[in-house]
């Protein structure tokens, strides 16, 4: 598939420690599909600067766009902005436009723009800001990297702002069919289907429900007519097994 | 923290496409914590052999143990076992002990051990089998890599079998406290706490509930008494804010 690719870098001890179950990756994956961008890799690393720098440099070299989530808050363990500056070899400091956004928000909320909050106005040189309509502290974009908050509601708002500015590809379409057959009984047919439709990706996901073995088959691609044709062929092969 | 480290490699178009929300990573992270092993990195790659080989070689060089999930089923897109063999530079073929497990299971279930199912008995040279108490097709362990199924119930059963055989470390303990304070208002205090307790990891996770801004503070480490002390100091700093 010739679609643009994206990668995601999740900076988060809270996911690696098992405390939180990822939500941002799942959200981003779904949004990218609609936009015709293929999420091609995800890495999750802890809040350790060299690990963030190394992963970011690998991902930004290999993909059209990289999204990061997490680590841009006000506390001592929020080190993403510094790590990004280091990865790009640029300086970082409090920037006036970001500071003004924070000041305005703090004024409205009756909060103090203290030293901790001011950390959130530190932006790597050459970056453009990504709007945070929820709590003002901006994300930013530098090169092909979009740096976003880890709090899901803010992450989602930032994705909504960024996505329309990215070059999408043909919509990534999918259809699925649930067959009441064990995966091992349909594997041969699926291989044949994959060979007959080389432009499509054919995935199968086995399950057991009420003691019955079944398989969800998902056919993905950008050519809706070909997906229809492959789906038609699949259901014709197992007419009595379609759930 | 001097605990052993682990990494996880998720092989799964179904997660990258947004179809499925990860469950195995979250489960594994929680189990490793109990066992005193620190999950230090996760990568999610698509069902593409060179991507699996590259990620696996990077992870197995950097961590004590690597767990993979997904891609060991019977279909054409189940290429994990071959990719692992390639990463280790060893051969792979149907192995008699794995074939016998599959044959026994198929006999009991009245299934045909067809060519597709026989793929699941292909084991890289030098690997040992990981038992699958649910559907027989084994995982395997080669070097420091444990290769496991992606179906969550089977993944979990395999983890339960493997974990007792791994060297754990001191239990990774954590305590959390919910403060009814915005993260930016407690960031200075948290930094001070982190400096006073250098052996502990102090994370903060902001939230908004019913219009009230709050922060969950999580203190992690292996020294329970130190965690108690840090927690005591934190709640003394914000006595009226403890939710």
TrEMBL record, chains A, B:
Coiled-coil region: none
Matches recorded under CDD domains: cinA (cd00885)
Domain MoaB/Mog: 7-170
Pfam families on file: FLAD1_M, MoCF_biosynth
InterPro entries: CinA, FLAD1_M, MoaB/Mog-like_dom_sf, MoaB/Mog_dom
Protein known as: Molybdenum cofactor synthesis domain-containing protein
